[in-house]
Amino acid sequence: MLFIGAPILYGILLGYVYGKGKVTDLPIIVIDQDRTEMSTKIMQMFEDNEVIKIAAVLHDQNNFSNIAIEKEANCVVIIPKGFQKMVFTKKYPEITTIVNTANVLTANYASSAVLLCLGTFKTGVQLETLRKQGTPEKLLQSQYEPFKTTFLKKYNRSTNYMYFLWPGVLATVLQQVLLLALALSFASEFENNTFIDLIYKCPSVVKMMTVKIIPYMIMSFGIWLLYWAFATWFRIPFFNNLGSLTFVAGFFVLSVSFIGILVSILIPNQLKATEILMVIATPSFILSGFTWPLSQMPVWVQNIANVIPLTHFLKAFRILSVENGELYQTYRPVINMIIIGTVCAILSFFALYFKKKSVLKNS
Fold it and tell me: What is the pTM of this model?
């Protein structure tokens, strides 16, 4: 079943994940300090482009970095005050676009779309202005440029692919190791007929679950320190908000641990429990939205992705370490991980309780 089913399952799942073949409706923020007819036309051009959509329109630059994180904006376009007047008086104003390069793929798509819109608008304004001044058609292209466009990269400024991909892959490895290790926690007891001994040593169901999870919590902290040592060794600049990120990682490890515990209780066979969790863990990175945006996937695929803790942890990681955000901005991913962990913990408790009751009855 695994040999035949996994290729079919992954083929269908990944086909739907990348089915669109391109990204659309990437959120951007426009800071319109001019508030004129010309700036309104620029925003209309952005809305007409299928690749980008305006998530918010601001009128000043106060707190725009936090708003960009909240809206998951790929670009922030700043139209300066007096823009229209400077264009008409040939004072060569400048539109600045700040590109969020935390995700290299979406940054390229969004910046290309913004550049296309601004370039088209710039040409239209230039030609129209010169025609009104009576400039001959042959001389239109050689006269003047109405405004400048400047693109600034933020966060991963070098667009280093290792900075982009490395942390997500390591978090995926940590999740997979935890799932595969905890798949054996109770399944090995059932398979080796030692569960009855465990019951006598730990009569409490909560205590049994705690005893199984605590060693992996300790080892996970050691792996976490190892990852940060790797970051130093490979000169990867992810040392911002280390305390907050470690706090969030604790919820990630707990939620993953309870998934492993639940499967280990429900599937009393080490090999089968390992296989099931391997099937769950393998596509989790692709489904997480870390590389290919979650918004571009079908809703049913998004629903699957949202029950995997890695999806929410990587979102929190990007906010805290890459975008240098604040802990309060990760409350949604943290709450989602708490919900996943709590549901799995409750299900594990009842499954283990009835398993214990059944074993005691039979013995």
Answer: 0.84
